[in-house]
């Protein structure tokens, strides 16, 4: 090569290498994310994942102690300017309305909403009280409606669309004995997400669902009657449940909150810009395992 050309090539390579080594902007930098049930297992793991990707995160929860503990933990890890905590009972229209109007006032809007708050109750249908039935519907169907509706209002007012992620459940699609209230409420939540996806498209609002199966580690759902009932069903102890679920899964692997958070981050970001009204099952292949 002539001397000048050789120099140009080397110079160009150097510039390319320099560009590649420059820190890349984080995918969610500048985004505001709200996570309900953010003080608990899947919620806090999702908060950490979105914070890792550069978002500012507001965690909401009904449990004040857990909320302040989670807020403190996240602030220590990511800095106090990136994290805020907000008390909310997702079943209360006034509380949800107040939280969203505060968010609108402080941040001008939100870009991401992860509706995750939840409970799970277990009882045979003939022993299920109306109060239990109602509680599942209130939190998992009505609560998701209230959060979805307020997100729509705020995202539409902001005018740049957004991403809403519902944490569903394998039980939204597959019935489970002794959990009719939970399964029915989760099915309603899933269908609500599909309706919101249809309505939101024109405003650039995407709505998707992550369906986990049996995330035992870090989940308070698995510390109560739900775990007890499942242990009886599989004739094992609650301590052995994680390995039981692992062994009956197609992949022979446990699902952790971080695995669910990974799917949440994908739906929250522009990486999933062409997806709405969709589901990711994070279930170690269980949905397939049951149909083999
Ligand atoms: P978790 O109990 O650890 O966390 C749920 C959080 O929601 C808690 O912090 C709780 O205080 C909060 N919450 C409950 N009621 C609320 C209300 N009315 N308003 C505001 N916050 C409220 O449970 P998790 O396992 O992290 O579950 C999170 C979501 O994942 C739930 O929707 C659950 O149905 C779903 N899910 C969990 C599993 C699993 O195996 N853990 C499987 C499938 C789906």
From TrEMBL:
Coiled coil: none annotated. Belongs to the short-chain dehydrogenases/reductases (SDR) family. This is Rhamnulose-1-phosphate aldolase/alcohol dehydrogenase. The lineage of its organism: Bacteria, Pseudomonadati, Pseudomonadota, Gammaproteobacteria, Steroidobacterales.
């Amino acid at each position: 090569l002539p001397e000048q050309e050789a120099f140009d090539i080397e110079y160009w390579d150097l510039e390319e290498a320099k560009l590649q080594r420059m820190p890349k902007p984080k995918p969610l930098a500048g985004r505001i994310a709200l996570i309900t049930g953010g003080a608990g297992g899947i919620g806090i793991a999702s908060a950490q994942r979105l914070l890792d990707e550069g978002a500012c995160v507001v965690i909401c929860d009904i449990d004040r102690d857990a909320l302040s503990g989670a807020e403190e933990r996240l602030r220590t890890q990511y800095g106090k300017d990136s994290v805020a905590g907000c008390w909310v009972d997702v079943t209360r229209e006034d509380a949800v309305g107040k939280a969203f109007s505060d968010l609108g006032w402080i941040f001008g809007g939100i870009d991401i909403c992860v509706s995750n708050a939840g409970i799970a109750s277990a009882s045979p249908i003939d022993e299920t009280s109306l109060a239990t039935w109602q509680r599942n519907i209130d939190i998992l169907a009505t609560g998701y409606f209230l959060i979805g509706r307020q997100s729509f209002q705020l995202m539409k007012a902001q005018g740049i669309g957004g991403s809403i992620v519902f944490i569903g459940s394998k039980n939204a699609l597959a019935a489970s004995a002794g959990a009719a209230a939970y399964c029915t409420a989760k099915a309603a939540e899933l269908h609500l997400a599909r309706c919101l996806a249809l309505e939101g498209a024109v405003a650039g609002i995407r709505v998707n669902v992550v369906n986990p199966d049996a995330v035992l580690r870090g989940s308070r759902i698995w510390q109560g009657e739900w775990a007890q009932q499942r242990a009886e069903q599989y004739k094992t102890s609650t301590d052995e449940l994680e390995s039981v679920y692992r062994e009956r899964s197609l992949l022979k692997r446990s699902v952790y909150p971080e695995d669910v958070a990974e799917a949440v981050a994908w739906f929250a970001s522009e990486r999933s810009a062409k997806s709405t009204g969709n589901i990711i099952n994070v279930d170690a292949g269980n949905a397939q395992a049951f149909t083999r």
